[in-house]
Amino acid sequence: MRSIDKEYICSILDTVKRNLEKNNSQRHFSQLSQDFYELFSSHYVLINSLDLQKKALKETHLITALENIRCSLEGNLKLIIEILEQLTDRTFIIYVTADSDTLWKTARRFNCSIEEICELNSIKNVFKLEENKVLLIPVTKQL
Fold first, then answer.
1. How many helical (H) and strand (E) elements, i.e. helices and strands, does the chain have?
2. pLDDT tens across 60-112, in order?
3. What residues are paired with 139 via a beta bridge?
């Protein structure tokens, strides 16, 4: 996993913005870079792993340090989603897949298309959805 810093996040978000502006599409996510999904999912995975590590620790100063890192990562994750929402005029939810999930069921459940989920989350095989996969799901904003 690549180390995550502010410059890396900004470069990916700039790429996302340029691609979306070039495509001028509110519903098409195929122009998002592969790095975007990796950035999003790595933040989510790191946040969850820090939670698990905190439970195993007994020393207060280490728990405090992990909590500070977790808060920073959560802030980055929220910022990533907020910027994407502003660029696309859509809202997004984070969804973790279960064993019985399929793309069809997930798309139907959240009222979006299979194509949107695949494009946004860099899913290549539409017939196999991994359990515990972190997905960004696009939702149309209500007026």
1. 5, 2
2. 777 787 787 878 878 888 888 887 887 777 888 889 999 889 999 999 999 99
3. 91
